[in-house]
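In the current project phase, the collection of sequences with tokenised folds has grown. One resulting record follows, to show the layout:
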Amino acid sequence: MLNYDIVVIGGGPAGMAAALKAKECGVDSILILERAETLGGILEQCIHTGFGLHYFGEELSGPEYADRFIQLVDDQKIEYKTDTMALEISEDNVVYAINKTDGLLEIQAKAIILAMGCRERPRGALNIAGTRASGVMSAGTAQKYVNIDGYMPGKKVVILGSGDIGLIMARRMTLEGAEVKCVCELMPYSSGLTRNIVQCLDDFNIPLHLSCTVVDIHGKERVEGVTIADVDENRRPIPGSERFIECDTLLLSVGLIPENELTRAVGIDLDPVTSGAVVDEYRETSHKGVFACGNVLHVHDLVDYVTLESQTAGEGAARYVLGKTEDAEYVTTKGVNGVRYIVPQKVNIKNDGDVKLYFRVGQVYKNAKIVAKYNGEVIISRKRPRLAPGEMEDVLIKNDMLKNFDEGGVIEISVEV
């Protein structure tokens, strides 16, 4: 059996940032497990720019952003194993993993950081009628074909879903010579960043159809076209609104699912809205010594936020290993009136620092107020010109405010129009 103070599962931006922060906090015995051939995670195929604006103060591509952290991991001599799949976590924090070189690994960890990222929701979750013709794939798969493998998935493209990957692939396919007919979005608003709508659709005259979905896929061997239709307020297709669009490729950008099979198997409490673990302000889960961060915890819009959150988890894991944890008295957080979820879901009022609460709204709001209340009393209120589901928001709870709270209290965040 191998022994490490901290085992990080996932070598993407979250896992690397968490490991580096733990090292900075004084823990030397750290191992990163990554199932891909290299560190870097999904950033390796995201060759567009727009990364690092918040964290580095400059615009980087995905591989450039990843490389900065890979270099730091190497400089800090943090151990990692690539091509290694984590299979199971035991009750006493033993990680079982496998690779071609070592075979089955049994690793005893004092603390574990979950940073497995997320995967795309597949066609099977959508109930779209039609055959199993080739040419239907997720936007992320198409991104890998184009950016890593050098293949073009198709020439006439329809994209279902206006998540950031779908928007970015609309631009990417256009730049590679494909004709992107349109982007269809089931909701009455886009789930992507505003800057991606402008830079990827508006700048290339690609139409975005809101409250619209694909109801049928045509073609036997290869996609020959799709039927799209408008939807009503219940998201059901409106009879008579159907129209046929000729295409040979349908890309799906219909949401991301945190990779929480390991989390679920060990019995960690999950949030039904985020599909990630329930955590405290240091991102510790309901299982002692197991922390979670990045897209496996909740889906982020910017990798810069993934990095910052993962540093919090790395610090939390280091504190746990070094025995620096304080007594715990928790208040819980709750999203109401337009706020879908809040992370962290609980906060230790004995904590000696400020706590930032991250949340997402459920629809587009203009000229609204974000209001935070503790046990019904307003503690923070600020105006925002625009709030959108595709962009994460946050509220900072100062430590001197936390110290006045009582165990069992509730912090609510809401939107007031």
In short: Residues 328-417 form a domain with the Immunoglobulin-like fold (CATH 2.60.40). The chain has three domains: 1-120+255-325, 122-254, 328-417. The first strand starts at residue 2 and ends at 9.
